Amino acid sequence: MDKQYDSKLAEEKWYKFWEDQQLFDADPDSPKPAYSLLMPPPNLTGNLHLGHAMQHVIMDALARFKRMQGFDVLLLPGVDHAGIQFEGTLEKLLAKENLSKGKLGRDKWLERAWKFKDEIYASFHSTWKVMGISADWSREVFTMEPKVQRTVFEEFDRFWKEDLLYKGAYIVQWCPKCGTAIEDVEMEYEERKEKLYYVKYTLVGTAGKEWVTVATARPETIFADVAIAVHPDDPRYKSFVVREARKPLYKRGAPGEDRVVIIQDSRVDREFGTGALKITPGHDPLDYAIGKDHHLPLLHTIDKHGRMTELSGDLEGLKIDQAREQAAEKLEQLGALEKTEDYTHSVPICERCKTTVEPLISEEWFVKMTPLAEKALANMDKINFLPSSYKQILSEWIEHIHDWSISRSLWWGYRIPVWYCDKCNPHHLVGKTRDMIVSLEKPTKTCQTCGEHHWIQDEQVLDTWFSSGMWPLATLGWPGSQSSESLIADSEASLKADNSPEWNKMQKYFPWSFELSSGEIKYLWIARMIMLSLHFADQIPFSNMFFHGQIRDLQGRKFSKSLGNGIDPNQMREEWGTDASRMALYSYTAPGRDGRANKQTMDERAKNFRNFSTKLWNIAKFVLESSVLSHQSSDQARLEPGRIVQGDALHEDDWWIREELDKLITSVTKNIESYQLHLATESIYDFIWHTFADIYLEKSKTRRVEAQPTLEHVLKVSLQLLHPFMPFLTEELWSKLTGEKTESIMLSRWPSRR
RNA sequence: GGAUCCCUAGCUCAGUUGGUUAGAGCGACUCGUUUACACCGAGUAGGUCAGAGGUUCGACUCCUCUGGGAUCCACCA
């Protein structure tokens, strides 16, 4: 045996060996029971980071463990196209070449996007392989491949037929920089010190003698005010109700000019400001709700680029911040500004680009979620959540569900499969089904209204989560042969031909046995998979849902490029080897617990496990060299290490270590089965180093020949127990222990007690 | 404004139904290189388990409150 373990050599050699032997592939025809793990598809945005590495390494350990236990394991990998995030990444790249979406145009841009996708893909693959991930690469799925397209179309089409889809003008959270509506869950909040402006609205017919003062942080939106609301029980404003006031900023000739009506609404907070609230339905969610209930008109003073509209008079074209300043100045000049106060509040910003989010009115597609939510809530008990508290957290969110806005103004993603007759329905309104069709490809039929053929597809794409929410089903080929008629009727033959009954075969793996995620996307992704799977397949998507914590920096901040506090898993692996890096990660996998690390602390940990590799290597060296020494006397025992030499009573040390080993088998098995990988790895580590090596092996030196069968047995079982976590080293030593001709440790049977 | 989680050795963290002297790794210190291993071995120091009450024969573990930190939710203009 070599003096030192060469981890790099072993990694290359064994990964290739496993792939060549097809040891990672699932077999739907196998009589073995299924155990399925669905890899959360990383976003197509660049390199895999430490968090991904942790996720994949957790899944891999479970997959390897279950294979050894005799399951037909499916560990299915994939990648998510990640609409907004991908576009953002590509945009930055293009900017360096002085290019942009606008300059390229849709077709050229898409061409470029697909190329970029391939580059990222290649980098993902190399990382996965060097991390030793034993996924079934033959079944890898990308969220924008034809298989998923079928699923997504089916999803949309069924929603449509079930009358759960609608399009309408709604107040959405709009990111002016990304140029698209985003979900509440895609926003963050940032504490900002701003000003609260106390603005006077004089009452009509009092010659400026009476007025209402309104406190607002957004004087620039006064142009779009349509009312002032007060609380019904507020005595201060009883006499004002139903009267009209003049807003101090308005555009001459604009609808309603300067008039706003004073209304009552119990949603107004009497304690805040003056207790009077200006109502701007076009630019504030609460105002929108109040405005809708009181049948107030909608005015727009800010457009989708974050600039003031024509309604804003002199301020037209200005950015919001500038407009605010100028509006304040104007109010001052007009004597309408009573006072200003410092005001700290949290402002919604876009999670991705950190731009201030603007509530705006936009035409968007929505899915009615109530029926899906009800079904999900009734089935939450069927899923085992780790930590268990997530069941309640998710249930509460689902209970308070609101309709899901699924359209995004992007190019990267699934174009909404709706076609409008450009002649009969030029504004692409919805509700007139005669001149619109849901179809994957351009309809061949004619418009029922005009009898002609002017079909134009909806410009927007579907929210990324509309497809990733179907991940558990899409990856297995749902709906297979059960797909709906419109797919077949309205689409090209290529899709029909590809419409294999894969789903029937792959249902063996559904629901998935195990899924994992960071808590961050519990609503965006996890809750939706639960709702969608139950809705479409009538089953929960997975029976075990594991939420891991996040690794943060030493101050507890998230890793981010801008902070430069990230840790590169590739670099770690380069320096300490894959197995050691994996072990370092397992120590952070207590369910739901965040961990803190920087480059240095991660290195310390990885180094420790690198040393552990060496330790184990040396243990094996000792055992195997001893076996050479004792070759003549106990040949039999060497060939079958577990076998106790007949007629010999075991030495008390042998009994002891075998007892300890049995206890280890029990605890490791139990800990992996309950997804406590940090405990499993710790106990194996402790046993091998501090029980087996430090105590037993030392003692055995005085009676080597007699101890040899036990030494070999304990080593062999230790390797098996460790294999899910340190696959390369254990395979390497396994081959040395059992002889090069024997089969992979992956095919060995998970140890059980004597 | 609600909700959840966390505060254990200098640092990063374990501690699964409450039960004997509270653990690991790294770091520190003292010894030790006699062939498995210095990427090592033997050992030492270091914690009133955030604080205060309560339940209990017994609490790091359960309950209440206080302080500190994190996260999530919510229509605070």
Features:
754 residues; alpha/beta; Rossmann fold; Isoleucyl-tRNA Synthetase, domain 2; 4 domains; 7-stranded mixed β-sheet; 5-stranded parallel β-sheet; 25 strands; elongated; RNA-binding
Describe the structure.
There is one protein chain. By secondary structure, this protein is an alpha/beta fold. It folds into 4 domains: 162 residues, Rossmann fold, CATH 3.40.50; 178 residues, Valyl/Leucyl/Isoleucyl-tRNA synthetase, editing domain (Isoleucyl-tRNA Synthetase, domain 2), CATH 3.90.740; 40 residues, no CATH class; 153 residues, Isoleucyl-tRNA Synthetase, Domain 1, CATH 1.10.730.10. Helices cover 41% and strands 17% of the residues. The chain contains 23 helices and 25 strands. Strands 7, 8, 9, 10, 11, 12 and 13 form a 7-stranded mixed sheet that branches. A 5-stranded parallel sheet has the order 2-1-22-23-15. Helix 18 packs parallel to helix 23, helix 20 packs antiparallel against helix 21 and helix 21 packs antiparallel against helix 22. The longest helix is centred in the last third of the chain and has 31 residues. It is elongated, with a radius of gyration of 32 Å. About 4% of the residues have low confidence. Keywords: Aminoacyl-tRNA synthetase, ATP-binding, Cytoplasm, Ligase, Nucleotide-binding, Protein biosynthesis. Its EC number is 6.1.1.9. One of its GO terms (biological process) is valyl-tRNA aminoacylation. One of its GO terms (molecular function) is valine-tRNA ligase activity. It catalyses: tRNA(Val) + L-valine + ATP = L-valyl-tRNA(Val) + AMP + diphosphate.
